[in-house]
Amino acid sequence: MSLxxxxxxxAAWLLLSFAGMLLQSAFCLAEDGxxxxxxxxxxxxxxxWGDLSLHGNPNLSTPNxxxxxxxxxxxxxxxxxxxCSPTRAEFLTGRYHNRSGVYSTSAGGERFNADxxxxxxxxxxxxxxxxxxxxxxxxxxxxxHPNARGFDDYYGFxxxxxxxxxxxxxxxxxxxxxxxxxxxxxxxxxxxxxxxxHRDQPFFVYLALNTPHSPMQVPDQHWQKFxxxxxxxxxxxxxxxxxxxxHTRAALAMCxxxxxxxxxxIKHLDRIGVGEDTIVIYFSDNGPNxxxxxxxxxxxxxxxxxxxxxxxxxxxYPRGIKPGTKVNRIAGAIDLLPTLAxxxxxxxxxxxxxxxxxxxxxxxxxxxxxxxRLMFSAWNKKATVxxxxxxxxxxxxxxxxINDPREKNDLTQQQPKVMKRLKKDxxxxxxxxxxxxxxxxATRPITLAHPDAEFTQLPSRDAKxxxxxxxxxxxxxxxxxxxxxxxxxxxxxxxxxxxxxEYEVQMYYACKQDDxxxxxxxxxxxxxxxxxxxxxxxxxxIGAAEDRFPRxxxxxxxxxxxxxxxxxxxxxxxxxxLRARKVVGGEVADMxxxxxxxxxxxxx
Length: 604
Known about the structure:
The chain is an alpha+beta fold. 22% of the residues lie in helices and 26% in strands.
């Protein structure tokens, strides 16, 4: 059937169509009459600078990401942090992470302070629809949840790592849901769906992919190429000596899966006619999660050396950036908020002074008067400062990165003036950026029942085991509590309740048939609710069969929810305690999380 109306109605149809086009284009005009660009930010997890064929890695092919650089700009010296959550905080706020209270990658230390302004808030105030898909890793409960930080739509997981990449338990705007297929494909699909549903206004999308972070899982279609592939080692002998070939093969297969998804996302933008006016930025959160090809640079994930901090950064914006642009000045994740706001013509009052600066002049060829700068990084008692040529480590060591990217020749004795200058700069910066919040969790407890949140998760990650109860793995992000066997055992959460009202509480659990019948008690202050486990959830551990390389993190299960009851919450600090009043079998249950759902608010 033809989609064109008959001749009697053709004129009216044409007029309406033309009017719609005018409305849509007018909606996207900035105050200066220039069309505001859409923005898509793609952040990968544990992908090093060398994990692209663009950078000379002979072991893989990333044609779509390489093409982005040819079609737009590559920032050759782009710096992030040594590990995940600090980089995310710096991208989201435009400020160094150790100004905003980030001191860990779990147990609450991954959260940046609630009074920080985020890039999503800036763009939403500028009229943009905002969506986030993937690994958040900046706090799970309001006011740290992505929906509380400026994102209209969120789908993914808030922890630092996830235990299963095939149709796993995820969340959509706080509600727990089941994923659809391999997680990177799923997140890309969600991003495309968001773009399609917001074509009538400018959109800002943050696609936070969680690979090649472990567990090393990747679909067969990408794995088959690498299963028996000969690997060319890194030019640095020390890197090559430590390389684990099976891990490398898995990581490279995951990178090719990422590239395929980047390619279909960009093709979709072009196909629907918005590619010319969409800024797509691609970067990673830290150095590679293994000793593999990284152009011989010293360091990997967790290091403050060049190889641990240097990230690929590619910017495609056909309307505003010339193809083949190469930026050789230093820049970093802290620059993305001011740069993107500058391109979008969004003026905003920063709540706190930004550490980043707009690098739009460098990307558009207007940076002739660009002033030199310093970039800093600190993690786990290590710190470093970088200028356009040198890198100084807090523990000693001055290196000419331009001529010695492998940091082989310490110039401390040969360049005493440079050493003294950079040492003072680093010491001053460390003095200014002392953590604003204590590492003591009692000063920043897990939050519960924020007035704006319908759902609040309290995962095992944020709990404390007592008695015989133990965590399923030493890396807490995706763990569960197990070995829960006696009435003396308990699991507790120290929380700060932020709102008041009635909340239904569910426990996500696994339980053998022989153990059905135990009675669970949840106490909050002087309130107690009890519920018997009536349904078994006898499910195996998931993940080993899909892993391409043995993991160090724990495995997961398919968890089942059971409703414990309803509690009344009032603001204040308190402790939640979960215990068994009656144990029927050999073990009570494995416990993954508590989910609180507001059913009635008494906040004014």
